[in-house]
Write a structure and sequence with these properties.
heterodimer, A: alpha/beta, Rossmann fold, 2 domains, six-stranded parallel beta sheet, 11 helices, 6 strands, elongated, B: mainly alpha, two-stranded antiparallel sheet, 22 helices, 2 strands
């Protein structure tokens, strides 16, 4: 018992790093895909997309306000939404107020199109007809206000990310102002960006329904707006994206597991590893207290600090 | 002064936003003449103000850049501590800025190159709007507007003609024109309708306008005879020369149309050479015909009538000999020009096409190597199968002999094993026969891939089907048989135990009855019965032990034997799977070969545009105007170009798939070739669309001339659409080139290779630190800490898939914790922060929060 207490007290931090690395890497390499936990907000997100009409009279605006730092969580969220919209043939526009997001705005839809075309070679999705990339737009809150107040979004923004005038983009043909935005889907890991969209992307007469995808550490902050009804659906980190992906799988049986579910499984294993580490840490503390005759456990020294 | 200015601007800005937020959208200022409420829109300049704020924000970026260079540049220059890090930062920033700037310039170049088309498109849209505008109230204004529209339209048409390249003419045009011309010169056919003689005649015509000539033919049945001596012979010689040249060109065209070999590019080059050779000969022939016509005309006293403007029609007009000869002169010259242009087109086509022969050679080589490898693997497999069979047969025979005393069911299974072995042997033989058939089909396929690969693929597929179905069934039967044997052993053991127990019980009962009958020796009998019962029990236990040991031994032996057999079966199955994979790979390669052969065939079918265009041109006399005829030719040409484009893209895609699938090392040249082809195809498509746009604009001019505004509008809309498509195609081709540029590669390397990866890695490190911190600091030392850990564990378990396995309500518990405890707490924090932010904003608005500014002022003053 004494040896166990010493071992736990002097556990090398590299052993912890190795355990976490193994817990993350092994499921990813094995492509282990467990059905995700039920997420009520992801189901609402899915229902909000399902309720959208598939016609030319409006678009879904996807604000992908994330960069490489939160790519691991926000990319699966954005990808699963784009896939859902493409499957339902709902037109959408991608925009970002974060400069680092610009390459992802271009790559993700193309990747989804490739996957969907592989699944069913008879179907076709084309840039311009099914979606448009509005690119990075500077100015954050000022830009959002300008977009909300614009009498004609196409004239306000001018051209898309490829330099094509928005008046000539087919899927923007009937999109004039904020009233034609049927859903705003905002994904971010940055502090305050979601608040800015909520605060400024509205007029006195109309506010589009908003869905949100956040990183795990900002879930409590996002729930404020879920509770107030300002957010109609929420992707809670990778788990939310995986839950949305599982709902898609229920409807499209031939759909292959995507990265969201595999990553969620790897994260679950890592969570279990962390729980085990917490239990071991407390066990070490109790054993050390007994060894010291009931005295409180001394703080861990440098060599014992994990 | 500077401080006051800043304070004033801050205050005024705050006033604007407060007023804009608090007051209604319109600030009423009274009633107008019509009694309507008039007012000032407060947010009228809101967008300009926001743009100004954005400009200030962007200026802050510039300020930040300057500061970075000041701070880190000084570090580098003065070699302060850590200066290499500063140098790295500055260099990385400069590199990224340079690459991004370079990329921006490249984008500008793309926009610049595609820009004239956008201007053209915008201009045409405006004219189209003019054409479609509703008519003005009075007729005079309508006429004025009509004139303005016509002038705009004509100006536009002129601009369009100047801005786009002249239309390409194909060999189909030339061949058809030559054929029609030959008939015309021999008087067997009407004058060709696909060109017009627009040059002014050397001598003025005396028959008035062309319309007069056509409506009132002069002596329609008579053709003046030739005057000079030897004219008939000279004309016959000229016709002979013309026939020789026409035959040469038609033979070359026929050879190209009948193309079946793989080297299409070579044939196209030969055809181009033939065109190039015939073109000057035709011009020389034109000079000869002209000289002949001049000589004949000199012999006449009446003026010749060769200067007519012929536009075609259902009935051939009576054109005199001179007219025909001069028309022939122009037609031959025209054909010479056409052939030269077509030769250039063919050169381009020939440069695109020779991709296919290389593929065929690669494919043949690969098929040969693959067939050799497959043959070696097959022989090896055959040997192993034979050894397996030889090894299995004695074992099964011995087993059969050993089980002669066993129950019938076990013996029957052994016999089934033997039959399986025999059936497997038969299946091996059948599969080998199919493989032989496949190889025999493959051998000629290497020589002539396009014709024979399909048979080879079918044979391989049959072999695969046999192996997949029958071998799979056999393996399943063997495994199921082994399982049944094991269950049989279990049953046998249970039955044996029951039989022994029953026998012992019957024996005991018999002994008991015997004892009961003997009243006298009851006690002794009881004692004896007890002894007997003990003995029987001991005997039964011993027998049960023996039987259990025997059964266990038998089961162990049987399991070992079965496991060995199963292992052999699995080995055999693995070998078969490997073989099936190899065969499947070979089948896929053969399928690829089929596709490539189909591509080559499609290419051969798409190339003879002569046939398609000849067909279109033969329909031309029925067309109403030249513009419609030109549109028909344009449509046919577009169809042929689309076919070529499709074939080129298919060939490139197949080549790329082939290379990537079979591990060709250097893929980049193939990919680059594919991209080049795509870009070239896009450019060709754009050129063609422009050509079609010009035709449409001519059609619009014709319709406008005849006051047919709807037709003009329709044609202009088509023209607008085609210019738009051409613009997109040109931009796409230019962008394709830009994407393969050095700067794009550099940008991708820096951004995706370095920035994205490093950024993601930095954030991912958090996972390890969180795990380490959780182990070290998440200790339950108090009730509050215990509460926090409980909440954390509930949320974590409720969010992961394993939570649902433990208790299905964990996700609901997690949601409850988040909504009931976490959200109110966070809302309180958010409200507190918002109130604090408001207080800070008020202080900044009223310039109460200027400590940093004053400090700077004081420092400057000091």
């Amino acid at each position: 018992m004494s040896r166990l207490a010493d071992l736990l007290a002097k556990l090398d931090r590299r052993a912890i790093y190795a355990a976490v690395a193994l817990a993350l890497v092994v499921p990813l390499l094995l492509k282990w895909a467990l059905p995700p936990a039920e997420m009520e907000q992801a189901r609402k997100f899915h229902s909000a997309v399902e309720a959208l009409p598939s016609d030319d009279n409006g678009i879904v605006l996807i604000a992908a306000d994330w960069g490489p730092a939160t790519k691991a969580e926000n990319e699966p969220q954005t990808e699963v939404l784009i896939e859902h919209l493409m499957r339902r043939r709902v037109h959408f526009a991608l925009v970002s107020v974060i400069a680092e997001a610009e390459p992802f705005l271009r790559d993700i839809p193309e990747r989804v199109v490739k996957r969907l075309t592989t699944e069913d070679p008879r179907e076709r999705w084309e840039y311009g007809k099914d979606w448009v990339n509005l690119g990075y737009r500077a100015g954050r809150s000022a830009m959002i206000q300008k977009l909300a107040a614009a009498p004609d979004i196409r004239q306000t923004l001018g051209v898309d990310a490829l330099g094509t005038p928005l008046n000539e983009v087919p899927c923007m043909r009937n999109t004039r102002n904020i009233r034609n935005v049927r859903l705003l889907a905002e994904f971010t890991g940055a502090v305050g960006v979601c608040d800015e969209w909520l605060q400024f992307f509205q007029t006195s007469a109309y506010r589009p329904p908003m869905a949100h995808g956040c990183t795990s550490i900002t879930i409590p902050e996002a729930y404020i707006f879920v509770d107030s009804g300002q957010i109609v659906g929420l992707h809670e980190g990778v788990a939310g994206a995986a839950a949305h992906s599982a709902l898609l799988k229920e409807r499209y049986k031939e759909r292959a597991p995507d990265t969201a579910i595999v990553m969620n499984t790897a994260l679950a294993v890592a969570h279990v590893a962390i729980i085990v580490l917490i239990v071991l840490g407390n066990l070490g503390m109790i054993l050390a207290a007994r060894k010291a005759g009931g005295a409180p456990a001394a703080p861990l020294g440098k060599e014992g600090a994990a | 002064m500077r401080k006051r200015l800043i304070v004033a601007v801050t205050f005024l800005g705050g006033v604007y936003f407060i007023v804009e937020f608090l007051l209604p959208e319109y600030f009423p200022s009274g009633l107008g003449r019509d009694g309507a409420c008039r007012g000032v829109k407060i947010s009228e300049y809101h967008e300009e103000i926001l743009m100004g704020i954005q400009a200030v924000g962007n200026a802050a970026i510039g300020l930040g850049l300057v500061n970075i260079f000041r701070v880190f540049g000084v570090n580098v220059l003065k070699r302060r501590k850590g200066w290499p890090y500063s140098l790295t930062l500055v260099l990385a920033m400069l590199t990224m800025m340079a690459v991004t700037f370079w990329l921006w310039l490249q984008d500008l170049e793309v926009q610049h190159q595609a820009g004239p088309l956008a201007v053209q498109r915008d201009f045409q849209t405006r004219i189209l709007n003019c054409v479609g505008r509703p008519a003005p109230p009075n007729e005079q204004a309508a006429q004025r507007l009509q004139r303005a529209r016509d002038a705009d339209l004509l100006r536009y048409l002129s601009d369009t003609r100047k801005s786009v390249a002249p239309p390409a003419v194909s060999a189909g045009d030339a061949a058809a024109q030559l054929a029609a011309l030959a008939g015309f010169l021999q008087g067997k056919a009407p004058a060709p309708a696909f060109f017009e003689v627009t040059d002014a005649p050397e001598n003025p015509p005396e028959y008035g306008t062309a319309a007069d000539l056509l409506s009132q033919p002069k002596e329609p049945e008579t053709v003046p005879p030739l005057k000079t001596s030897g004219a008939d012979a000279r004309l016959a010689e000229l016709v002979k020369q013309r026939d020789a040249l026409t035959d040469r060109l038609l033979k070359s065209s026929e050879a190209l149309k009948a193309q079946t070999a793989l080297d299409v590019g070579g044939q196209v080059l030969e055809h181009a050479a033939a065109c190039r050779e015939v073109a000057p000969a035709l011009r020389k022939l034109a000079q000869d015909v002209r000289a002949f016509a001049d000589g004949e005309r000199a012999a006449y006293t009446e003026p010749p009538d060769f200067a007519l403007r012929y536009r075609g029609g259902p009935t051939p007009p009576p054109v005199p000999m001179f007219g025909r000869l001069y028309l022939a002169t122009r037609a031959l010259n025209h054909c010479g020009n056409v052939l030269e242009r077509y030769a250039r087109v063919l050169d381009v086509a020939a440069a695109e096409i020779p991709v296919a022969p290389k593929n065929q050679q690669d494919l043949s080589g690969w098929l040969t190597a693959r067939a050799e490898r497959s043959h070696a693997v097959r022989l090896d497999w055959q040997r192993r199968a034979a050894a397996d069979l030889q090894q299995a047969l004695p074992a099964v025979s011995a087993k059969l002999a050993a089980t002669s005393g066993q129950p019938d069911a076990l013996r029957t299974r052994m016999l089934d094993d033997l039959r399986d072995a025999g059936a497997r042997s038969a299946i091996y033989n059948q599969a080998l026969a199919e493989l032989d058939a496949a190889d025999s089909g493959l051998a000629p396929a290497q020589g002539d891939v396009a014709a024979n690969t399909r048979a080879a693929a079918e044979a391989v597929s049959r072999a695969l089907a046999v192996l997949k179905t029958q071998e799979g069934v056999l393996c399943l039967l063997r495994v199921r048989s082994a399982e049944q044997d094991l269950s049989y052993l279990d049953l046998t053991q249970a039955d044996a135990g029951k039989i022994i127990t029953d026998a012992l019980r019957a024996q005991a009962e018999a002994k008991g009855e015997a004892a009961a009958r003997s009243a006298e020796g009851l006690r002794s009998v009881e004692a004896a019965a007890k002894n007997v019962a003990d003995e029987v029990n001991k005997e039964r236990e011993q027998m049960e032990k023996d039987l259990a040991a025997k059964v266990a031994g038998l089961r162990k032996t049987w399991r070992e034997k079965t496991s060995v057999e199963l292992k052999q079966l699995r080995d055999g199955e693995d070998a078969r799977k490997r073989e099936i994979d190899a065969l499947r790979t070979r089948a896929s390669v053969v399928t690829e070969a089929q596709k490539m052969a189909a591509d080559a065939a499609a290419k051969a079918a798409a190339l003879p545009e002569i046939e398609a265009l000849t067909k279109v041109v033969t329909e031309l006399p029925g067309s109403k105007t030249d513009a419609e005829a030109a549109m028909a030719v344009a449509k046919a040409r577009k169809a042929v170009l689309d076919g070529q484009l499709y074939v080129l893209q298919r060939a490139a895609k197949t080549e790329e798939r082939f290379a990537s699938k079979h591990g060709m090392k250097d893929l980049r040249p193939l990919t680059a070739a594919r991209d080049s082809l795509r870009a070239l195809a896009g450019a060709v498509q754009s050129d063609f669309l422009l050509h079609a746009a010009v035709k449409n604009s001519r059609l619009a001019a014709t319709a406008l001339g005849s006051q047919d505004l709807p037709a003009a509008r329709s044609a202009m809309e088509s023209c607008l659409q085609q210019i738009g498509q051409a613009q997109e195609g040109a931009k796409e081709a230019l962008r394709e080139g830009a994407n393969r540029s050095v700067v794009k590669g550099l940008y991708k390397c820096l951004f995706e290779g370095l920035y994205v990866s490093l950024g993601a890695a930095m954030f991912s490190l958090l996972a390890f630190y969180i795990a380490s911190a959780a182990y070290r600091a998440f200790r339950v030392k108090s009730a509050e800490a215990g509460l926090m850990m409980t909440a954390a564990l509930l949320v974590m378990i409720g969010q992961i898939p394993f939570g649902g396995y433990i208790w299905s309500q964990f996700p609901q518990v997690r949601l409850w914790v988040l909504q009931v405890f976490s959200t109110p707490a966070f809302r309180g924090i958010a409200l507190g922060a918002a109130v604090a932010s408001l207080a800070m904003a008020m202080r900044m608005w009223l310039s109460l929060e200027t400590s940093a500014f004053y400090r700077e002022e004081e420092q400057e003053g000091a």
